[in-house]
Design goal:
The complex is a heterotrimer. Chain A is about 70% helix and about 0% strand. By secondary structure, chain A is mostly helical. Chain A folds into 2 domains: about 60 residues, no CATH class; about 220 residues, MetI-like fold, CATH 1.10.3720.10. In chain A, helix 3 packs across helix 9 and helix 7 packs antiparallel against helix 8. The longest helix of chain A has about 35 residues. The two termini of chain A are about 15 Å apart. By secondary structure, chain B is mainly α. The two termini of chain B are about 35 Å apart. The chains are: A mainly alpha, B mainly alpha, C alpha/beta. Chains A and B meet through helix 1, helix 3, helix 4, helix 5 and helix 6 of A and helix 1, helix 3, helix 4, helix 5 and helix 6 of B.
């Protein structure tokens, strides 16, 4: 399987090419390239920086103009307040559990289904595929009421189990789709040899295909994790209190001591806090994600 | 039992967990929504809902506001997916070419995508606030690019543009990621050969890179179109649908939850589902002709 | 990979164990054989501590236990939650804290409290009791009151030679313009005369109710069900507000909620502000730019008609409660003068009882307190009781259309007639 080795020769649009050309051309192009990189970094990172800046400003400096662009000296009150907030701390734990749990469930169920759809020629395959695609076709709000009644009838209202189960509707279709393409891309001889040795499809799957698909699993797992970690609407409707509230809902509803008050500093501190773990995850898995997508999602 | 039949049985066994889950959290709720759309049910009411046939759909067809919302959502989708695609392509190209700090850049470009939408929308609305927001501070007070401070989220065209900007900011990383993955599948040798044959960079991009990226482009387009049509979180947090930013999903929420009209709201849901299905069918047909 | 999954499994198990340990909430502490009541409360709110203390006192006196059901702080989310419980006829909650605009929406699910509270009702501000009465049924007992008030920069009034806060809207416009021009000439380019809530949300409906009531233009939908907003007076009142935008109010005021308005006033960038009492304490903080430079008073009105939109929260007993008698006892206790006084002192929540406004102890703790008596006596309820379960839709029609007027997408006359037609349709349906 190919991963991102050197790709010097895949051609970007002319102005983005840093390496070749005559001497002046090289300089101009380098500057343009660096400029493009800087612009993109500013666009993607500035809002995050601004949240960080807001979290470290004293509250009296949050609403003034001209604004302070550097938190000097930094004030940690907002972070202290956020970490003293039981609702928030518990929300982070809930989010981690529900996102992790629903990711594992999606991977477990989804990779079996992907295996069946990717490597078996069964009748009704088309229907199943259409069904799976159909699951991605409506806004969450349109099934919210019905999902609520199913979950509460199962006695799972306001539990992490119920929320995790509802997240399947978001994570499972993507998992099946990506993993199916992944399995398709593996050579056919793989399980054939295993089957010749008398292995059942389950054994072939477990011992031969699954180990080979770990990169794909890592990618889809991360995609699913981020989806679940960021989800808001189901979490809002299917949970009430500390027992199961996840952190996006906690942040969206963060209030101060009185009705109406919106403590921006604390909200910014909370925002930075919940984003950091994901940035670290992305940093660790960045190569993995790209490699996995290369193999799974985008291959025709 | 033949070995083929046995194999098929295995395949269905593998599908059982996924199908069971879809049945509980997908199919059943959908059917339920459809059935509810034929009644006058109200949220949180103990009165038994009455069957009203297609009345809700008739009301919906005559509801001018709904069609305005539909058109707006489609416009939003076209504009934001086009921008995401253009920007995503540039970013993918950049992080595909070798330079020092590329790994860091690849991580940085993913940050907007990793922030929960409700959170980033709050950050953006803070930044766009008219009197103390950093957007005005930067553009009007410091750089003098604007004559006076602008109320970004107050005026319809501007507010719409802001929602697009935030959505593009949030989802371009995903598009760039998919395109980057596609770029990595193009063998270097093809480009080397073309360069030897004297093809210019522009030609190579147009005639080689773009066609070979097609599968990746299509996947990115499908995922993003479906997502953009369903936009909810960003609008909900930033404007609650005011100043000409109401989209299909927020309209649906308003009818169903705020107005407690479960029956009518369900009809809106079904209508949205059908509208999105049109897009899906179009894309799937495109994919199929693509593969011949 | 095997090792990894093992490690993840162990971590998940540990986390689950932690979770179980955390969720062992303290019991209600009821005496043997006594009921344990469940009451909704926002655990992140500033009043939670005093509520817990009051609950403990109640348990000591009666032996009846009290537990809190956490409720989200956002009002819309909270209503959605209540509707989930009540729609399922759940007995999990005995006493609900409900917003002043919900008696109409929740009436069918609540016990009629009139028989148990008949003698006590005259002690509360009359507009609130009236608001909580649907038909003949007393849906909820007033618990604390809130109302729109005008914040004035006293230092600036003095600087520009005004000796009293504005009496009429014309006064306010004139004073705001003078101060704004003066401050801008002095170099503060971002200074504004008047900030308020113009975003398309419930808060705008509150502002609209005040504009209309203070101009003799009725209350959108009258208590008898007549839609009254389509009138020249109403159009005039809304057009006047639209005229403030970008003259004495910032153009972004059409996206302002309470906090945006407060931030502008709090940082010393506005002369007047319409807001709720909560802003007072925050703006008296040590590092506030306007500490001791402002005061509160009633909002202006034409021909001496002042009006303040009524806010606040009430206590209601669920019709599905298994402990109705005990729940009523709890409501009696929590709405008593003593409990309301404790909440005023500890959490600055304004009592719904008239007599408490003469209490020197509270007046010492909350400086603007005595001024509030006049405000509440003139409080104007939103048309939530008469519109019942359709109130949210009524309010949305109002704030969306008025917001369009404010941001110049339509004119006031067209808007009030459109609102009138749409409200007629809603009222027709519910008849």
């Amino acid at each position: 399987m190919r991963t991102g080795s050197s790709h010097r020769f895949t051609t970007p649009p002319p102005f983005l090419m840093p390496r070749y050309g005559r001497r002046w051309g090289v300089v101009v192009r380098r500057v343009l390239f660096a400029g493009a990189v800087a612009l993109i970094l500013a666009y993607t990172l500035f809002p995050f920086y601004w949240a960080f800046n807001g979290a470290l400003q004293p509250s009296s400096r949050l609403y003034v103009s001209p604004a302070d662009y550097l938190p000097v000296p930094p004030v940690f009150d907002a972070f202290r307040e956020v970490f003293a907030n039981r609702m928030f701390v518990r929300g982070v734990l809930n989010s981690a559990l529900v996102a992790g749990g629903s990711t594992l469930l999606a991977l477990a169920a989804g990779s079996f289904a992907a295996y069946a759809l990717g490597r078996f020629r069964i009748r009704g395959r088309r229907v199943v595929l259409a069904l799976i695609l159909g699951m991605t076709m409506f806004p969450q709000i349109s099934i919210l009421g019905a999902v609520y009644s199913v979950i509460s009838r199962m006695g799972l209202y306001n539990t992490l189990w119920g929320l995790g189960l509802s997240y399947m509707i978001l994570t499972l279709p993507l998992t099946v789709w990506v993993m199916m393409n992944f399995f398709k891309s593996l050579p056919a001889e793989l399980e054939e040899s295993a089957t010749v040795d008398g292995a059942t499809p389950l054994q072939a799957f477990w011992h031969v295909l699954l180990p080979l698909s770990l990169p794909g699993l890592a990618t889809t797992g991360l995609l699913a994790f981020i989806t679940a970690w960021n989800e808001y609407l189901f979490a809002l409707a299917l949970t009430v209190d500390r027992k199961a509230r996840t952190v996006p809902v906690v942040i969206a509803n963060y209030t101060g001591n009185s009705l109406h008050e919106v403590p921006w500093g604390a909200i910014m501190a909370a925002s930075v806090t919940v984003t950091l773990p994901l940035v670290v995850l992305v940093m660790i898995f960045q190569k993995r994600i790209i490699a996995g997508l290369t193999a799974g999602a985008v291959k025709g | 039992m033949s070995s083929l039949q046995k194999r098929n049985l295995w395949a269905w066994a593998f599908l059982v967990p996924t199908l069971a889950i879809f049945l509980v959290v997908g199919l059943y709720p959908l059917v339920q929504t459809f059935l509810t759309s034929l009644t006058n049910a109200r949220l949180g009411s103990t009165r038994a809902p009455e069957f009203v046939g297609l009345d809700n759909y008739a009301t919906l067809l005559r509801d001018r506001e709904f069609w305005v919302v539909v058109l707006r959502t489609v416009l939003f989708t076209v504009v934001s997916v086009a921008l995401e695609f253009a920007l995503g392509m540039v970013i993918a190209m950049i992080v595909h070419s070798p330079f020092r700090g590329r790994g860091l850049m690849r991580t940085a470009m993913l940050v907007p995508w990793a922030i929960p939408t409700v959170v980033s929308a709050r950050i953006w609305s803070y930044m766009l606030q008219d009197t103390y927001g950093v957007a005005n501070d930067l553009l009007a007070t410091r750089l003098g690019l604007l004559d006076s401070k602008v109320a970004w989220l107050a005026e319809p065209t501007l507010a719409f543009a802001c929602v697009v900007a935030v959505e593009v900011w949030k989802t371009t990383p995903f598009v760039a990621l998919l395109l980057l993955a596609g770029l990595q599948l193009i063998p270097d040798e093809i480009h080397e050969a073309a360069e030897v044959d004297g093809a210019s960079r522009g030609q190579r991009f147009r005639l080689l890179t773009l066609p070979m990226l097609k599968p990746a482009i299509l996947v990115a387009l499908i995922f993003r179109t479906l997502d953009a049509l369903r936009i909810f979180d960003a609008v909900w947090v930033m404007t609650r649908g005011q100043a000409g930013t109401e989209m299909m999903a927020t309209y649906n929420y308003r009818q169903m939850i705020d107005f407690q009209q479960l029956g009518f709201g369900s009809a809106v849901s079904v209508a949205i589902f059908l509208l999105i299905a049109v897009f899906v069918v179009a894309y799937v047909t495109m994919l199929r002709t693509e593969r011949g | 990979m095997k090792k990894n999954t093992g490690a993840i499994g162990v971590m998940a198990a540990l986390a689950m164990a932690l979770l179980v340990a955390c969720s062992q909430e303290a019991g209600g502490g009821a005496a043997d054989g006594k009921a344990v009541l469940r009451l909704t409360d926002d655990p992140t709110g500033g009043a939670h501590a005093v509520n817990e203390r009051l609950a403990r006192m109640f348990t000591e006196h009666t032996g009846i236990g009290v537990e809190f059901v956490p409720a989200p702080s956002s009002a819309t989310d909270r209503l959605a939650l209540y509707l989930q419980f009540l729609g399922a006829r759940s007995s999990d909650v005995d006493v609900y804290q409900i917003d002043v605009i919900w008696p109409g929406i929740l009436a069918e699910h609540m016990v009629d409290l009139r028989p148990s509270f008949q003698d006590d009702l005259t002690g509360h501000f009359a507009p609130i009791v009236e608001n909580n009465t649907v038909g003949d049924k007393l849906v909820a007992v007033p618990w604390f009151a809130d109302a729109g008030i005008l914040y004035c920069r006293t230092d600036l009034l003095e600087k520009y030679g005004f000796d009293a806060p504005p009496e009429t809207w014309d006064d306010l416009e004139r004073m705001a313009r003078t101060i704004q021009e003066g401050e801008r000439a002095a170099g503060n380019k971002d200074f504004w005369g008047y900030v308020w809530q113009g975003s398309a949300y419930e808060g705008l409906t509150c502002n609209v109710v005040e504009w209309l009531a203070s101009s003799g233009a009725g209350s959108i939908v009258e208590p008898d069900g007549t839609v009254s907003i389509d009138s020249p007076e109403a159009a005039h009142a809304i057009a006047r507000a639209a005229g403030w935008v970008n003259t004495i109010s910032p153009p972004g005021v059409t996206t302002y909620k309470e906090e945006e308005a407060r931030h502008v006033f709090h940082t010393g960038q506005a002369a007047f502000m319409r807001n709720w009492p909560y802003a007072y304490t925050l703006m008296q903080a040590e590092d506030s730019a306007v500490r001791d430079k402002f005061d509160v008073c009633v909002l202006p009105g034409e021909k001496g008609e002042h009006a303040a939109a009524l806010g606040g929260w009430q206590l209601a007993v669920s019709a599905y409660s298994a402990h109705r008698e005990e729940a009523i006892e709890l409501v009696k206790f929590l709405s008593s003068p003593e409990a309301q006084k404790a909440r005023a002192l500890d959490a600055s929540l304004l009592p719904s009882r008239t007599r408490l406004y003469d209490d020197p102890e509270i007046a010492a703790a909350i400086p603007f307190f005595p001024a509030m008596k006049e405000v509440f006596t003139n409080a104007a309820p939103r048309p939530s009781t008469v519109t019942g379960e359709d109130y949210n839709q009524v309010s949305t029609i109002v704030f969306q259309n008025v917001n369009r007027v404010l941001s110049g997408q339509t004119d006031a006359k067209t808007a009030v007639s459109k609102i009138g037609t749409e409200l007629e349709k809603v009222m027709e349906r519910s008849r």
